[in-house]
């Protein structure tokens, strides 16, 4: 089963670290990622640019509007995500608990929703209307 894991960074703590401490943390995280890959648990993962680069889409009054910039006033920000392959939630928790990134802020783990049946049904409905 696939799990998407959202990693949040405690910005205030991160900014207190020296460059060498930050680099050491990156090295630990990437080494653990390599171990996840070797053991078949890594599906994908990406770091995110800061919230100041975000664009938020909202549907209001019959149209979509796009707004630039960060909105959350929080000491933690979404820093990246991992997609893991694990037999169940307990294994996903175990894998992520050992990740050095877990010391940098909280992580949210969610199972991936299987959308295949919904997609097939939608394709059938749309094929009839063509």
What is the fold's blueprint, element by element?
Layout: E1 2-10, H1 11-16, H2 19-38, E2 42-47, E3 55-60, E4 63-68, E5 76-85, H3 89-97, E6 107-111, H4 116-129
Antiparallel strand pairs: 1-5, 1-6, 2-5, 3-4
Overall helicity: 25-40%
Number of helices: 4
Low-confidence runs: none
Quaternary structure type: single chain
Instruction: Name the strands of the widest sheet in spatial order.
Output: 2-5-1-6
What radius of gyration results from the CA coordinates? 19 Å
The mean pLDDT is: 89
Large-scale geometry: flat
SSE-based structural type: alpha+beta
What does the main sheet amount to?
Answer: 4 strands, antiparallel
Number of strands: 6
What is the H/E order?
Answer: EHHEEEEHEH
Beta content comes to: 25-35%
Could you give the distance between the termini?
A: 35 Å
Describe the structure concisely.
The protein is an alpha+beta fold and 130 residues long. It has helices at 11-16, 19-38, 89-97, 116-129, and strands at residues 2-10, 42-47, 55-60, 63-68, 76-85, 107-111.
């Amino acid at each position: 089963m696939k799990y998407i894991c959202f990693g949040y960074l405690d910005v205030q703590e991160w900014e207190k670290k020296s460059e060498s401490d930050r680099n050491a943390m990156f090295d630990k995280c990437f080494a653990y990622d390599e171990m996840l890959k070797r053991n078949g648990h890594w599906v994908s993962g990406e770091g995110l640019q800061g919230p100041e680069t975000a664009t938020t889409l909202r549907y209001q009054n019959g149209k979509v509007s796009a707004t630039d910039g960060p909105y959350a006033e929080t000491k933690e920000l979404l820093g990246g995500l991992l997609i893991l392959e694990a037999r169940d939630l307990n294994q996903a928790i175990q894998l992520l608990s050992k990740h050095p990134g877990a010391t940098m802020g909280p992580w949210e783990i969610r199972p991936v929703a299987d959308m295949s049946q919904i997609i097939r049904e939608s394709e059938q409905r749309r094929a009839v209307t063509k």
